[in-house]
Structure prediction request, 356 residues.
Amino acid sequence: MVHPYVGLPPECFWRTGVAQNGSTSIESIYQKRFTIEPEDRIVTAGSCFAQHITRELKSHSFQLLDLEPPPIELPCYLHQLYGYSLYSARYGNIYTAKQLLQLAKEAFSLKPIRVISWKRGDQILDALRPTIEPDGYSCVSEMAAHREHHLACVRECFERMDIFVFTLGLTEAWCDLATGSILPVAPGVIAGFYDPEKTRFVNFSFLQILRQFEHFLRILQKFRSDHQLPKILLTVSPVPLTATASGRHVLLATTDSKAILRAVASELQRRHENIDYFPSFEIINHPAQKNQFFNQNLRTVSDVGVRSVMDCFLQNHQPPPANTIEKEAHMKDAQLDDVSQSLICEEELMERNLGD
Prediction:
């Protein structure tokens, strides 16, 4: 019998591509669109899961930009607590494409710098980066000065990067109505006070997210000196929602969110030759793993899961050779990770602050 499926390779069928050999299917699940060259300057950003990617790229000698480094006097074990070394700049987690777009607009002076302060006791926190300064600021003007410096670092990242690795995390977000800014977390979770007259819940659609990311691409192309877009490697966070404000069961909200983000990533890859998709979401949710890749809470990704994702990545993108000095630096980073292995994640604070 002749039909279109005759002669297709094993990975095209569920039985031979997934069920019979789960480990082999993970190894063959990704076919890279472009090569990361040893000299390529990489910038990372995105949701909490992207912190794993940053650590791994750093530990394998990739040319990861860090343009907002920690001050020399800050002890290593406090770097991540103060938002340093998590990403290429000190922007904290960027959960939505809209957050990324508004950051680019401010960095390239396409919109005024937004300063939104939250109070927590006597502390003043930056509502757009609420976890990067745990002790808070002494006044709003100090916070504004820090934000202005931060945006200059972000602009340099966007101008210099050859590779942009971005993890899409959420479709749900909270909007500050006075400024129109998307917040990384609802007011009241970390600091501030929730007022429904001042803050609105939004849940972005496929088309909105697609347009937001493509708007971000246009800004990059306009302001980079060569007017060329960098190579972009998209991932979708495999981490389920901690909570949903949509009124639906959290499992439905998670499935809806991840499906939309995955579809956006696929469409961006189809439309743009410089964009590739790396399947960290599919690897962690692989049926053959039977929850080995999640911790007991069925939400946070296990060390085995992270390792499987990065092994697949490194099979396709070989790290550049490290010299002796770099190896010593990476060993120091590894020691730091042993001390501070947990992710900095605003979303998880929602659950912690609910009490018993």
Remarks:
- Residues 334-340 have pLDDT under 50 and may be disordered.
- The beta strands are 42-46, 117-120, 123-126, 163-168, 172-176, 181-183, 199-203, 231-236, 275-277.
- The CA atoms of residues 2 and 176 lie 59 Å apart.
